[in-house]
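Narrative of accomplishments. A recurring question from our advisory board has been how the design workflow behaves on a single, concrete structure rather than in aggregate. To address it, we present the structure tokens for one chain from the evaluation set, followed by the sequence designed for it. No filtering or post-editing was applied between the two.
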């Protein structure tokens, strides 16, 4: 029996069976979504998006995913809320829960806040990014995208480059991709790598050129200036010259290697436009797949029995 998924707080908490299940459910949903059909697993349910940090893709994606499941969404924007008047996170969330929603999707600048909410609230909590810590649905959609494009994650060499130290996307991806059997290397200037990359079970290099020839997947990350307390890179120009993936460096890649980016892209910094929009780029596929994966997560935490029944009835095996 697979361990029940009550909340989705961190990729570190997921085991390989749960990851496989969520990706399998997402794959099953795909043809329905492509035909524009709704899968009514959240009918009569409300998902609240509690976002204390900016978001384009993630929040919209959770909204679209909820609607595709027949549910309703309510958005909460911290900048116009009573958080400005000093209300705590837990108080804010408890008040929202008192209105009767069925799930809370939370993004917050403090690492650990989704886990505090998961303990304080009586409804499922899904982490949409907490500080430097984790962004589990992003990692699930990245793993899904790699599976869809290269058939499997197992045995693949994955190079994650950029601001690894401040990246919740990198951390969640390392957890998920390793559990699926990938080998991972991180790359960036020494000031933007975690202090002990070995402790994360990944290789590292300071020059992208060393890692590109063996890569099956290259994942570019944004330099997160908003999370740095001082400038840890000399200038965007210099950064791009050494750690940006441009057409010249991309020539080192294998024929079938693919390029991912969670967005938002800083064009001309970590990725040149020719590379970001080129034939190896699967960046917009990631965005589509994000809806599928978030549908799978929401259905699994809000209506596990309904989901199991729906899969059974359709003869879907995941
Ligand atoms: C990222 C995030 O907010 O963690 N974006 C995303 O969710 N797709 C990465 C970033 O901000 O660079």
């Amino acid at each position: 029996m697979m361990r029940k998924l009550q909340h989705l707080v961190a990729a570190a908490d997921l085991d390989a069976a749960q990851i496989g299940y969520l990706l399998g459910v997402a794959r099953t949903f795909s043809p329905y979504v492509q035909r524009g059909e709704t899968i009514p697993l959240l009918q009569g349910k409300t998902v609240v998006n509690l976002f204390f940090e900016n978001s384009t893709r993630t929040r919209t994606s959770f909204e679209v995913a909820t609607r595709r499941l027949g549910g309703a969404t309510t958005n909460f924007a911290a900048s116009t809320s009573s958080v400005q008047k000093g209300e705590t996170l837990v108080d804010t969330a408890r008040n929202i829960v008192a209105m009767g929603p069925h799930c809370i999707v939370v993004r917050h600048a403090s690492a650990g806040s989704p886990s505090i909410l998961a303990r304080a609230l009586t409804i499922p909590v899904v982490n949409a990014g907490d500080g430097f810590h984790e962004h589990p649905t992003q990692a699930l959609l990245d793993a899904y995208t790699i599976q869809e494009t290269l058939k499997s994650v197992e045995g693949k060499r994955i190079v994650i480059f950029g601001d690894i130290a401040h990246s919740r996307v990198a951390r969640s991806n390392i957890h998920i991709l390793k559990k699926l059997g990938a080998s991972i290397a991180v790359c960036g200037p020494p000031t933007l790598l975690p202090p002990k990359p070995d402790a994360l079970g990944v290789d590292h290099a300071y020059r992208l050129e060393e890692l590109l020839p063996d890569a099956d997947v290259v994942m570019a990350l944004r330099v997160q200036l908003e999370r740095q307390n001082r400038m840890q890179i000399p200038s965007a120009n210099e950064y791009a010259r050494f750690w940006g993936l441009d057409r010249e460096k991309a020539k080192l890649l294998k024929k079938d290697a693919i390029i991912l980016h969670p967005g938002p892209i800083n064009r001309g910094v970590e990725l040149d436009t020719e590379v970001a929009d080129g034939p190896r780029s699967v960046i917009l596929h990631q965005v589509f797949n994000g809806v599928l994966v978030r549908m799978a997560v929401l259905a699994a935490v809000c209506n596990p029995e309904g989901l199991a029944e729906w899969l059974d009835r359709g003869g879907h095996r995941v």
